[in-house]
C-alpha cells in the first residue's frame, strides 16, 4: 500500500483547523495567501500550533514578488527561519535565487544552518529557476528534503511532464511535492502521470464578509479585489482529495 502525503497551505487558524479535519497530513502556514503567501505573524503561528496536532511548516518570504533578495531582506529571512524553528515549527519553506535564475547556494546554506535539524522545503522559487534539474541537485546537496513545484507552469496539470521527470531524477532522495491547482478533479491523474506521492493544495473557498455596513467607494487594497471576500480552506475539498489519495494508496 502506497502512502500519499497531503499538505495544505493555510493562512488562518480557521483554515488550519479545516485542513486537519479534512485529512491533511501537514500544513504550510503563511500570511497573505491571496498573493502567493508571505511570512506569517508569530502569533498566528502560535495560535495554529495550539489548534492542530499535525506538523506545521512555515513559509519564510518577506514580500510579494521575485526571490532575489537584498542583504537587508536576507537578514530578515535568516532571523525568521531561526525564530520559527526555535518556537516549535516542524520545518520551514524557503527559496532564494541569484539574478541569473540559479539557486543561491551560498545563502541557502546559511538558512539551512539556521534551520538546524528541522525539515526544509524549497518553495516555488524552484518554478522560476533557469535549470530545474541543476536546482534539484543543488537542493539535494544542501540537505533540502522537499521541493514544492508545479513543474514550472502556472498549474501542476500543465507541468505534469516535467514533474514526472523530476520525480524520476529525485529517485526518492528529495520529495517532489506537487502543488499549483491540485484538487479532486485532477489529483488522481496527476498521481498516475507523475509518480509523485506528495501533493499540496489550499482548498480555498470564498466566503462573504460578516460586515453588514459596507463603504462602496473606498478600497483598502487592490481595487479589483473586494474587501468583503474572505478566503478560507474548505474541509470538504480537502477530504475529497484525501479520499482519492487513500483509494489510490489502497490500490497499490
Automatic annotation (TrEMBL):
UniProt-annotated location(s): Cytoplasm
PANTHER family: COPPER HOMEOSTASIS PROTEIN CUTC (PTHR12598), COPPER HOMEOSTASIS PROTEIN CUTC HOMOLOG (PTHR12598:SF0)
Predominant subcellular localization, coarse grouping: cytoplasm
Keywords, ordered alphabetically: Cytoplasm
Protein family: Belongs to the CutC family.
Coiled coil: none
Name assigned to this protein: PF03932 family protein CutC
UniProt-listed Pfam families: CutC
Amino acid at each position: 500500500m502506497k502512502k500519499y502525503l497531503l499538505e495544505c497551505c493555510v493562512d488562518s487558524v480557521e483554515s488550519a483547523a479545516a485542513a486537519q479535519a479534512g485529512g491533511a497530513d501537514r500544513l504550510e502556514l503563511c500570511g497573505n495567501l491571496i498573493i502567493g503567501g508571505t511570512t506569517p505573524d508569530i502569533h498566528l503561528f502560535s495560535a495554529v500550533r495550539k489548534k492542530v496536532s499535525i506538523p506545521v511548516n512555515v513559509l519564510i518570504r518577506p514580500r510579494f514578488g521575485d526571490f532575489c533578495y537584498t542583504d537587508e531582506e536576507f537578514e530578515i529571512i535568516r532571523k525568521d527561519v531561526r525564530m520559527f524553528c526555535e518556537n516549535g515549527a516542524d520545518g520551514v519553506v524557503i527559496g532564494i535565487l541569484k539574478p541569473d535564475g540559479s539557486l543561491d547556494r551560498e545563502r541557502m546554506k546559511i538558512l539551512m544552518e539556521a534551520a538546524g535539524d528541522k525539515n526544509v522545503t524549497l518553495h516555488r522559487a524552484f518554478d522560476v529557476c533557469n535549470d530545474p534539474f541543476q536546482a534539484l541537485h543543488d537542493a539535494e546537496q544542501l540537505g533540502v528534503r522537499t521541493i514544492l513545484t508545479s513543474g514550472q507552469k502556472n498549474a501542476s496539470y500543465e507541468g505534469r511532464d516535467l514533474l514526472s521527470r523530476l520525480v524520476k531524477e529525485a529517485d526518492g532522495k528529495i520529495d517532489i511535492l506537487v502543488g499549483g491547482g491540485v484538487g479532486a478533479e485532477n489529483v488522481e491523474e496527476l498521481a498516475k502521470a507523475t509518480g509523485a506521492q506528495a501533493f499540496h493544495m489550499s482548498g480555498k473557498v470564498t466566503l462573504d464578509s460578516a460586515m453588514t455596513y459596507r463603504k462602496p467607494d473606498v478600497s483598502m487594497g487592490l481595487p479589483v479585489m473586494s474587501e468583503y471576500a474572505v478566503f478560507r480552506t474548505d474541509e470538504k475539498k480537502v477530504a475529497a482529495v484525501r479520499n482519492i489519495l487513500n483509494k489510490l494508496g489502497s490500490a497499490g
